Amino acid sequence: xxxxxxxxxxxxxxxxxxxxxxxxxDKKQEVPDARGVxxxxxxxxxxxxxxxxxxxxxxxxxxxxxxxxxYNGGSSQxxxxxxINEASNTNADSEDVGxxxxxxxxxxx
Length: 109
Description:
single chain, alpha/beta, 46% helix
């Protein structure tokens, strides 16, 4: 399924990350013991919305790991995002991406 994804249009990567963080925070109000994790699928080309430098402190403060899965080569920014709270950065173009993703999902259970 991942091989059939296509890239196009504007990419609001970090605005989407903020929205995901808010969704996790809202859910934690209902389930305080829940452990949040984000899986960010992107080509890494942020071209609209917030920049990483604007939201980095929020990501650090919430201590939610953001596992990045980069398409079409990804970017160094995806690597930077994944390192903030010690998560992974996976190249979706690799031969064993399925195995890598299963390993990440299992480690987060």
